[in-house]
Design a protein that fits this description.
Blueprint (H helix, E strand, L loop, with lengths): L1 H18 L2 H6 L7 H13 L4 H22 L10 H27 L3 H22 L6 H22 L3 H26 L3 H10 L12 H27 L6 H24 L1
Helix pairs in contact: 1-3, 1-4, 3-4, 3-7, 4-5, 6-7, 7-8, 7-9, 8-10, 8-11, 9-10, 10-11
C-alpha cells in the first residue's frame, strides 16, 4: 500500500511541477486536480505492469489535458460593466487552458507517443460533444443524458485504458467517475436547488414544465432523485463486478472506492429518511 502511495505522491508532484507557471500564478489560482482521476490513471497503469517512467508520463499528460478541459469551464461569461481585471482574468484562464493542453502534446511528442496523442485528442472531442448534449439539453432520452455524463467524466481515462488494452479498468473507471458525478449533482440539487444534470432530467421527465428546478413539487423532486439513484445503483453493481475481476487492485484505490460507495449509501439513507 505504501509503495503505491509513494508512487502516487511522486506523480502528483510531477503534475504540479508541470502546472506551475510563475506568470499565471500571479493572477489566477492554481487549477484543481481531480484526485480520483489521478488515482484511477495511476492505478490502472501500475496494475498492468507499465514501468514507473511511463506510468508517470501517461498519467501526467492525461491529467494536463483533463485540467485544460476543466479550466475552460472556469471561464466566466463577459458581462456589461466588467472591470479590466475581470477581462484579464478571463483571458488568462483561457490562456492557462491552452497552455496545459499544449504541454500534454509537447511531452508526448517528445517521447514519440504519437498514438496516445491521437487517442487523447479523440477523447477531448468526445468530452466536448457530450458537454454540448448536457448543457444544450439535446438529449431526447434519460439514457442518452446519463451516457453523456459518463463520457464527460471518463473519456480521457478510458482512452488511456484503450491504449493499454485494459478493458476492465475502462469499465471500472467509467462507473466510478459516473457515480461520483451523480453524487455531486444530487448533493448540489438538494443543497442549492441547481444542477445541470437534474435540469436535464427535469426536461425529460416533465417535458411540459417550463419553470426551473426551484418550482418542482416534492413528488417531482423525489422522482428525479429516484431516477438518479437508480442509475447509481446500476453503476455500483458494475463496479462490484469489475472488482472481482481485479483481485490485485491496490489498497489505496480500494479504500477510495469504499468511501464513494459509502457516500452513495448515505445519500440513499437520507432520501429514505426524508420520505
Amino acid at each position: 500500500m505504501q509503495d503505491f502511495k509513494n508512487k502516487l505522491t511522486g506523480i502528483r508532484k510531477a503534475l504540479e511541477q508541470q502546472l506551475s507557471h510563475p506568470y499565471l500564478q500571479q493572477f489566477i489560482a492554481s487549477p484543481p486536480i481531480d484526485e480520483d482521476k489521478l488515482m484511477m490513471l495511476a492505478s490502472l497503469l501500475d496494475s498492468i505492469g507499465v514501468d514507473e517512467s511511463r506510468t508517470e508520463k501517461y498519467t501526467v499528460t492525461a491529467m494536463l489535458l483533463q485540467i485544460a478541459l476543466d479550466t475552460h469551464e472556469l471561464v466566466k461569461v463577459s458581462r456589461p460593466g466588467s472591470s479590466e481585471w475581470d477581462l484579464k482574468e478571463r483571458q488568462l484562464t483561457v490562456l492557462a487552458g491552452v497552455y496545459y493542453s499544449g504541454l500534454y502534446y509537447k511531452l508526448l511528442a517528445a517521447a514519440g507517443e504519437i498514438e496516445l496523442i491521437d487517442m487523447l485528442a479523440s477523447g477531448v472531442k468526445t468530452v466536448n460533444e457530450n458537454k454540448i448534449i448536457i448543457y444544450q439539453k439535446e438529449a431526447d432520452a434519460i439514457e442518452i443524458l446519463m451516457d453523456s455524463v459518463k463520457e464527460v467524466e471518463a473519456a480521457l481515462v478510458g482512452k488511456v485504458a484503450d491504449f493499454c488494452n485494459a478493458g476492465i479498468w475502462k469499465e471500472l473507471a467509467a462507473n466510478v467517475l459516473f457515480v461520483k458525478r451523480l453524487i455531486d449533482e444530487e448533493r448540489l440539487f438538494l443543497e442549492t436547488g441547481n444542477s445541470i444534470v437534474f435540469d436535464g432530467l427535469k426536461k425529460l421527465s416533465f417535458p411540459k414544465m417550463e419553470q426551473g428546478l426551484q418550482s418542482l413539487s416534492r413528488e417531482q423532486r423525489k422522482h428525479l432523485i429516484s431516477v438518479c439513484e437508480r442509475y447509481r445503483e446500476f453503476a455500483i453493481n458494475s463496479i462490484k463486478k469489475a472488482q472481482t475481476h481485479l483481485p490485485g487492485m491496490n489498497a489505496t484505490l480500494n479504500e477510495r472506492l469504499e468511501s464513494i460507495l459509502g457516500q452513495h449509501q448515505s445519500m440513499v439513507n437520507f432520501f429514505v429518511e426524508e420520505g
